[in-house]
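Entry:
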Amino acid sequence: MAIHLSVHDVAPQSAAPGVQRRPLLDSSKAADIRFRLECLTIDARAELTLAVAGSDLAWFQVLNGEIALERTGEVQKLTDSHVVFLPPGFRGKLTTEAGASILYALVPQAASLDPQFASQPPGYRVVDWRNEPLLESKHDARKRIYLATPALFGTQAIKGEMIIYPPGTEAPRHYHVGAAHFMVFLKGSGTAFAGERSIAVREGDVVYYDDREIHALRGGEGGDMIFSEFFVPAGAKTVWVEPEKACTWLPTGKNIRGGKPSREIAAHSMAQPETAAGV
């Protein structure tokens, strides 16, 4: 059964001086979850050390605020445009002048999810999703931006994208096979469907679906509903209740800023993932 929770309702725990963590998802909530997900809030002028074990990987998405990531003497300035991949053995430090929040995910024993993990370990990556290709749905007004793919992060252990639902748009009913799957709602409101159950969702909500659980989404009426969704591992198969309605994504030739994107992605149907050249 789907898990639904709000970041705002989770009691904070102290992670370090001036840093609070809100645990969201882990294997204690569903046995097949292969990751740990939490929201970390860093107060002004506080700092957080990040350390990833040699067998693990992690990534985070900046939710709000400006933050600096320091590693090996270099400093990377980050905003809510950024998703950051942390490879095995990563060591670094986050600092912020005015406060910031991130969504942080850790995948233990990542080699079990990617057969090339040991021989071709992925490296540190920073993705500015506002520079990534903006795709549009063939069937409706939805839009899509890839956040975490083998091309971006160099591993099959995770996959992620951001989806934009204008008011009233709806995805066809479908389910996934072979991966843990969750969504984090970043803006707006709408409805998530899990089987026959409907779940009102809004900014700050998290929804996790069981493997093979039929689901769909519908945008609300008060503006765009925007969410990030991630799969662990990347190779989940998507099955459509009505195959003729399988999502098909078309390149716009632009990023969400209206400029030239950082790369090109070919048109592809989610019923035929092998057609997704460039992903």
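The chain has two domains: 10-128, 130-272.
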